[in-house]
Amino acid sequence: MRKIILTLIIISVFLSCDDRLEDLNRPTKAAVEVPAEPLFANGVNEMYYMMNNSNTNINVFRLYAQYWAQTTYPDESQYNMVGRRNPDNFWRGAYRDALKDLDEARKITLATWENLGLTAAERDNRLAIIDVNKVYIFASLVDAFGAIPYQEALDPEVLQPSYESGAAVYDQIIVLLDDAITKMDPAADSWPAGQDPVYEGDTQGWLKFANSLKLKLAINISDVQASKAATMVSQAIAGGIFEDNADNAAITYLDAFPNTHPIHEDLVQSGRADFVVANTLIDKLNALSDPRIAVFAEPLADGVTYEGGVYGTNNTYAQKSHIGAIFHEPTLEGLILDYAEVEFMLAEAAEKGFSSPMSAEEHYDQGIRASMEYWGVDDADIDDYLANPGVAYTTAPGSFKQKIGTQHWIALYNRGFEGWTVWRRLDFTGFNVPPLLSYSDIPNRFIFPIEEATLNKNNLTEAIQMIGGSDNVQTKVFWDIN
Amino acid sequence: MKKLLLLGLTAVFMLVSSELLAQDRVINGRVTDSEDGTGLPGVNVVLQNTTNGTVTDTDGEYSLTVPTEGGTLVFTFVGMATQEIAIGGRSEINVSLSTDVEQLSEVVVTALNIPREKASLGYSTQKIDNDAVTTAKDQNFINSLSGKVSGVQVRTNSTFGGSTNIVIRGNKSVTGNNQPLFVVDGVPIDNSTGNSAQQRAGRYGYDYGNAASDINPEDIESINILKGAAASALYGSRAANGVVMITTKKGEKRTGLGISLSTGVEIGTINKETFVKYQDKYGSGYARESFGYYGPDGFFVDDDIFGTGQTGLVVPTLEDGSYGAPFDPNRNVYHWDSFVPESPNYQRAYPWTAAKNTPVDFFETQVTWNNSIALTGGNDKNTFRLSYTNFDMKGTLPNQDLKRHNISFNGSSAINDKLTADLSFNYVKLNTLGRPSTGYGDNQMANFRQWWQTNVDIKSQQAIFEKTGRNVTWNGGDYYDPETPIFWDNPYWTRYKNVQTDERNRMFGNIALNYKATDWLNVMARVTADTYTELREERRAVGSVPTEFGINLADEGSGYQRVNRDVSEYNYDLIFTANKQLNTDLSLSATLGGNIRRENFASIYSSTQGGLVIPNLYALSNSVSSVPNPIENESTKEVYGVFANLNLGLRSMLYLDLQARNDISSALPVDKNSYFYHSEALSFVFSELMDGSALDYGKIRVNYAEVGNDTGPQRTTNVYTKNDNFGSTVLFSYPSTVNNPNLLSEKLTSIEAGLELAGIDGRLTFDFSAYKTISSNQILAVELSKATGTSFKWLNGGEIENKGLEASLGFDVIKNSDFIWNATVNWSKNISNVNSLPEGIDNYQINSFQGGVSLNATVGQPYGVLRGTGYQYLNGQPVINASGYPVAIADQVVGNPNPDWNGGFQNTFSYKGLALGFLIDVSRGGDVYSLDMHYGQGTGIPEETAALNDLGNPIRDAVVLVTPGDPTQGYAENSGGIIFEGVQADGSVNTVRARADFYGGAYYWGNATRQPSQMTVYDASYVKLREASLTYRLPNTLFGNVFQNASISVVGRNLWIIHKNVPHSDPEAGLGAGNGQGYLSGTYPAIKTIGFKLNLGF
């Protein structure tokens, strides 16, 4: 009897405390619901971090583009991707840190825009800007890996997202980009200025970025889908692309960590001496008497000589040219797409027979000028440089790919990923081969993330088939057929 | 609500008590052991020829209501001779029982502190007494369990103040806690380490030790290990990993005040077999002469350093490896101290030789003091014990000190004939100075083992630090900037300037009221509490090498970080226990109870950012940049349980034990938060049927149990992560771990069978168990492809199976009145298998480590296998590439950290007052991956990297072919290089000599295509002389009977590693307690201790 009473008391207590138990389990120090703006800003911020940092665990593209060389530990320069799992970290930065926040901002915007009192145009602008950024990141992922999860990505309900071929992803993101461009209304507001670290809510700025990005995608596929590329180039130009450096897709970093330019941590805060400027770049700049050498690099102790670290080997830090002073500034601007790049792509478009506002030579000259202006070279020096027979479009050696490729590559200094991409697309010569390796060891792509083999095995196996059966660095991404 | 429930329970309690008053007369008394006079719990006291009976309590006391006239009490207890005593007119009957050689058993403390006769238990428990943890004492009493209990695997960590991994019968949870529950006198004790995720993954961090190491060994009376689910089912799901039940010493009835004193000192030194043996042939550098990137021979910088117009050779101080120039005493070069004005070698080139003092000389002597006093007293009604222990350990690294104060009070008071109140209170204060960092980041062992120049004399580093007080390091950025440390600080700077401290204040104890409602029914109401606050502070002094530090784990040259932790657990129990001899044949004991458990956890982690403004001021406000968002955690979990236990005994021979419990946990989704579980056990004392055989006692037991489990709090609602603002832009991000509102409770099922035997007049005892457990429906944070937009998601699913055998054998090899030789063997084997994981996943990464290796739960493999690049095999032989290096293939299972078996062999020899004991602890099989060897060999530090090859030539000499360019003609007699064992791609035995003359050459290259991680996977077997002690018990007459007992001991721990296969390290070393075992990175050498101990009892 007593036992029964006891049991009843306890049971009745339990029955009455469901709500209490639920409350007990509710998080008290973290937000369960948040607005879209801080997710959007975070996604954009992470996108810039992913493309601009120089952490040897994540972004090794300043090395792959042979702008920088390493001093004591040249593993990454020798294309060891396994030791530090660089593909995993780059992939994670793209999907988890950047794309997912943008995707979540999109969902929350759709759910909350009416309560926020946004107009439909403002809502569309916000969504379109999100999509443009997503397109940029997905394109970078395809350019890095060859095949990637797209439709099934970004949904934690789908535990193992399947991959799609690079060409299929490009097709879809081009549609998404076109849709975003159509929906953008430059007259209407978009994100609040304080939550848009790139264009401060200026829809027009984002629209130019979207069209310039369209130009970039077009040029990337120009060897495999020429007619589609031609149409896209014309549309992008008509829609309005970057016209000067003020249009650049750039983020202004701040004085104090963690808001400093990402390379500040590796070059200054770490106190280490891991990097010097690579001989690949220094030799080229020396040969062309390029005035940007004084910006990109520091002279040796004699104050005049520039000597690059031998790419792919150990280098004595004290005896090679250091990274230029401006890159040690915490407030260095972070870039993901700039005016010089647009001009070089237009030059390439002209050579490939697509419509372009001016001739290849004029765009080429304009690209060099834009780059030099950006880095603070004065006009007289720019004119001298353009007159240099090794630079002048008519006299510079090699095919258009060699000429445009080389100058585009120089202009992309500090844009390692794009520097490497331009090398892959235009196949200009001049890269060095690390000791004991051969030219074919210079990567054409990142291998798939090592952890995908355990976390997403079946889909990975299919993805390897999609890219031709070999998950190695020799395999080329779909647009890279030359 | 809690109050309401308590009120309710109290009401019931009152109700019960008032109903059971009227009877005739009450007989009280105490049953003691005739051998030592201690109280005997669990003795059956029955009025002859009736069903009226009771059982003695933990102190051996009983009370029984009997009719006014006549009667005889029968006292029975397994292992003791039965006594029958006529009551007569007495109201108090004290009895002393003596051992019955025909019977042998013992009383053990079972779940919820219920004492039970061991014979009646259908499951395995193993008891060890206090000598086991106090004689050859360790700072962490858990270490003292190693080798002493079958089925218990203890991994002693040599990190100063570090945590010890203890696992009973295998790992049952993929990601959850696999450590047993610790209970002190009924109080569940928190045993978390609170170590950071980075620390556990082998990156920056400190091992803060097990919280259960707060328990003072001097206060321990005995430890009982409940191994299986059936044994611990009453504790609920949290005891699925077994329970370490600790009973502390209590006061007892005596004349006058008892005083016991103990004092001990231990001296510890490093075991050099567990530290690097340095090569002494080559010094600093990575130079690979074929690159020839500087100097005349590629080894030294050649420059006009002091602006004299004369060039000189400079040691490459920037390079933290030893693949440089061969030592040559006739070659004078500028060393790191040639650039330091305060150094006697300033601007002086001096001979290029190996250091006279290697980092072995960095270690100091560990000194441990342990002083303890205990007062005991008692009369018929009240007993108490009050003790104080002061523990002080100065470690083997400079500037290390761990101090612990324990105050403990145990009191018991009989308020009246029926009501007893017990109070237990413990206060612990722990202060630690200078814990060492673990793993890869900023750890001096990573420095000494992985990244070191053999030309650097550690004593000259000490001298320059003491002289200048600055961070003058051997590893300066370069000769033109010698005082900017590049990778490693001066080791003495690290010890004296980058100081870690922590403090823990803890109280635990319980208040219990015991009410003897009738002679057969007892009601206990108990409140237990364990609560502590902790402050952990980590510091980097201005001028240190920037390294991962602070909340954002950015490279910080200086900084301060602190973690405040508040941990508490409260339990409210109401337990009815009934013990009744139903008739001459049938006995019954039953338990019915309820438990409310409340766990609170709160922590705040805060750090500076961008460095410190004012040197040596360690305050958050002294941050250069704004202080990053602190990480705050706050959670509460409540679990409500009702449980019942019924044990029926037939003729002290056949016992049936049934248990059931239902829990409701706040951590589970509300509609699925209740889960029921149960166990059934049968024990058969078959020796009762046998007469006159050599077998004194024999029992077989079987049981089946199902136990449910909940999960940690706050895993059912998703939350967003707030990042530091970008200027004034606010940033939030999607969580990297996604929660799940649909979690279900976990389930563990277990079956177990066992055999217990005792024979040859009690000289031989044997206990054997076989078990199998299946833990299913596990709740785990599954790692996902990052393409999902997150890293982890909480999911149900997955099953781990553990099966094993355990045996312990005790034998008094010699036993006569003067001399006893007792030998005990414990042996256990556990085999685990991951049967499944959540759907679609066949591998779960438990930890990802530096070096490209990870620890995993892989379907079809034992729990915790190491994966990394492995050898490519051809006909069972590793394939060697054309350059002579082993070929690597990605993502192979390269090791299994679980030992094949564990064993302990303990011997005690006693002759009159003299006792000699030693314990040999054995672990067979199991693998470890050594990052220390991976990098250490890669940088040319240990002696084997400068050995001679099969031709008798230094392996670092050039590989020379007889005919240049034609390997078919073989190698010249003077060829260097090494031949890796294996076969060439065509299957032929490898004869290609691999170059071993440069950094990363022969041993390490990052594992991508050659030199697989498997190369530094080692067999972790060991045989250790774990403990040895010699104790002399002084005759009481020696000091005129002033002392009731006095003894003096010489003790030693970890004296000798008799056998091991892991080079330069202790196979047991690791990152600390937790699931990440089998990974050696920056491990600390094992410490051999030898000491003296004096015990005095007044």
Any overview of this molecule?
The complex is a heterodimer of chains A (about 475) and B (about 1100). By secondary structure, chain A is mostly helical. Chain A is about 50% helix and about 5% strand. Chain A has helices spanning about 1-15, 20-25, 35-50, 60-65, 85-110, 120-145, 165-185, 205-220, 225-240, 260-270, 280-285, 295, 340-350, 360-375, 380-385, 400-410, 415-425, 450-455, 455-465, and strands at about 70, 145-150, 165, 250, 275, 335. Chain A is globular and about 75 Å long. Chain B has a 22-stranded antiparallel barrel. Chain B has a five-stranded mixed beta sheet with strand order 10-15-16-13-14. A four-stranded antiparallel beta sheet of chain B has the order 3-2-5-6, with no helix packed on it. Chain B is about 5% helix and about 45% strand. Chain B is mainly beta and about 1100 residues long. The two termini of chain B are about 50 Å apart. Chain B contains eight helices and 62 strands. Chains A and B meet through helix 1, helix 2, helix 3, helix 5 and helix 10 of A and helix 1, strand 31, strand 34, strand 38 and strand 39 of B.
Quick description:
The complex is a heterodimer of chains A (482) and B (1098). Chain A is mainly alpha-helical and 482 residues long.
Poorly predicted parts of chain A: none
The total of helices of chain A stands at 19
Structural class of chain B: mainly beta
- Structural class by helix and strand composition of chain A: mainly alpha
Radius of gyration of chain B: 32 Å
Strand content of chain A: under 5%
Quaternary state, please?
heterodimer
What strand line-up does the widest sheet of chain A have? 1-5
Rg of chain A, Cα atoms, Å: 25 Å
Mean model confidence by pLDDT of chain A:
94
Please give the share of residues in helix of chain A.
40-55%
Largest sheet of chain B at a glance? Answer: 22 strands, antiparallel, barrel
Give the low-pLDDT segments of chain B.
Answer: 1-23
Report how far the terminal alpha carbons of chain B are from each other: 49 Å
What about the largest sheet of chain A? 2 strands, antiparallel
Helical run tally of chain B: 8
User: Termini of chain A, distance in Å?
Assistant: 88 Å
Helix and strand succession of chain A? Answer: HHHHEHHEEHHHEHEHHEHHHHHHH
Number of extended strands of chain B: 62
| Largest interface, C-beta within 8 A | A-B, 99 and 110 residues
